Amino acid sequence: MQPRRVTRQVYVGSVAVGGDAPISIQSMTTTKTADVDGTLAQIYSLAGAGCDIVRCTCNEEEAAEGLAQIVPRSPVPIIADIHFQYRLALAAMEAGVQALRLNPGNIRKPEHIKAVAREAKDRGLPIRIGVNAGSLDPDIAARHGGATPEALVASAVRELDYFRDVDFDDVKISVKASNVPVMIDAYRLLSETVDYPLHLGVTEAGPPPAGVVKSTAGLGTLLAEGIGDTIRYSLTADPVEEAQAGRTLLEALGLRERQGLDLIACPSCGRAEIDVIGVAKAAQHALEERNLPLQVAVMGCVVNGPGEARGADLGIAAGRGKGHLFVRGTVVRVVPEAEMVDALVEEAERIVEEGIEARLAAADANAEAIAAADREQLVELRGTDANHAAERIEKIREITER
Ligand code: SF4
User: Concatenated DSSP letters for 108-170?
Assistant: First the structure.
């Protein structure tokens, strides 16, 4: 991981973006903004999933009126998304939003852009310059031979110049493209060009899982290079999935503290003593319901499981009809296989309540010895032939010799 690039800091309501602020997670509602209750319900779900800032479209007068009722009741700051009509930007500010997103590709008259910037300056509100490869200024696209990284950055710089004319620099910028290499290069170039906070996104990434993979490729690459101050996954899915994906990415990169469960599981192989996929799903479901901030491992066999997942706070490995529960690699309890998921949940709750050290200190005295014996027996039984190939070959020979 490269050190984080130093950027200026802006405030979207109470949420700092840029500078040394934690990288924030954004998403966008899919409801009609005029539907106040429906939009608020989605905003609450997003906030519950770890979203820091929510954007709502402001595409008509009714939407601006909806914002006037949504903003005071929202648990997180609201950004109004503006396309084409600069008057709706003015209306959204009047409605009380904490920031705006303007698309320079479709609000092109300098006097309109400057009018919005002047009003934002008077109200102390930041604006995101949201450049999008699909709606680039035609003259910029023509000059650069299409939506190249240079064209995306040129569009942002032109908008910045209009803002500077009215002495406005409370700005963050995005240069999104659906083509991941173009998006990565555009942000790299932008980060060399300006020191404003950057909002990262792969636009129109599509439905999961491909949309998540494309977004993660773009966002993860840039974040690992220290580029990016706030992120959005643009998925064709329930926006809660966007927030969850954003949260997971930042936690995986160590850029945000773990808020909930991190379930790791082995991919399973011929050595597996249980249905790893089924047990992992059951464990995930049970643990997520309780929202415990732990890393929990589900490992298919006791031969390699506890060792490979020794970094996990808690884990379970299967062997010889039993579940071996381990805490940071030490086996603390052995239970019958049928009880392993329940025991895992029980242990997780105990660790959250008492702490890891206390649980290790209270480990069952003979758990490690039972686990070691099971491990040995398994190695002896299965040896290197975990898939029973020798046994099968023997049977095939018997059949064919008959
Ligand atoms: S933990 Fe055991 S079952 Fe899982 S992948 Fe490793 S060897 Fe295979």
Answer: --HHHHHHHHHHHHHHT--EEEEEEGGG--HHHHHHHTSS-HHHHHHHHHHHHHHHHHTT---
Predicted model pTM: 0.86
pLDDT for the residue 147: 96
Rounded Cα gap, residues 259 and 372, in angstroms? 34
For ligand 1, pick from 273, 275, 308 the residue to mutate: most ligand atoms within 8 Å of CB: 308
Could you tell me the two tokens for 212?
Answer: 């998540």
C-alpha 81/C-alpha 90 separation (Å) is: 12
- CB of 99 within 8 A of CB of 127? yes
Q: CATH top-level class for 9-252?
A: alpha beta
Residue span(s) of the chain under CATH 3.30.413.10 come to 262-382
CATH 3.20.20.20 in the chain: give the residue spans.
9-252
Phi (first) and psi of residue 64, to 5 degrees: -60, -40
Does residue 384 surpass a pLDDT of 60? Answer: no
Locate tokens 């997520």: which residue? 288
CA distance 87 to 119: 11
* pLDDT tens digits, 157-173: 999 999 999 999 999 99
Is the bond into 209 cis (omega within 30 degrees of 0)? yes
Residue-level length of the chain:
402
Are the beta carbons of 203 and 177 closer than 8 angstroms? yes
Q: How far is the CA of 194 from the centre of ligand 1 (A)?
A: 48
Nearest CA to ligand 1 atom 6: 304
Summarize pLDDT for 311-325 with one digit per residue, the tens: 999 999 988 889 999
State in Å: Cα 248 to ligand 1 middle: 24
Q: How many helices (H) and strands (E) does the chain have?
A: 15, 15
Comparing CA positions, the residue from 200, 202, 196, 195 lying closest to residue 181 is 202
Q: Within 13 Å and on the Cβ side, how many CA atoms surround 62?
A: 6
Ligand 1 atom at minimum distance from 317 CA: 1
- Let me know: does 29 contact 56? Beta carbons within 8 Å: yes
Q: Tell me which of 276, 304, 384 to substitute to probe ligand 1's pocket, judged by most ligand atoms within 8 Å of the beta carbon.
A: 304
262-382 CATH fold: Sulfite Reductase Hemoprotein; domain 1 (3.30.413)
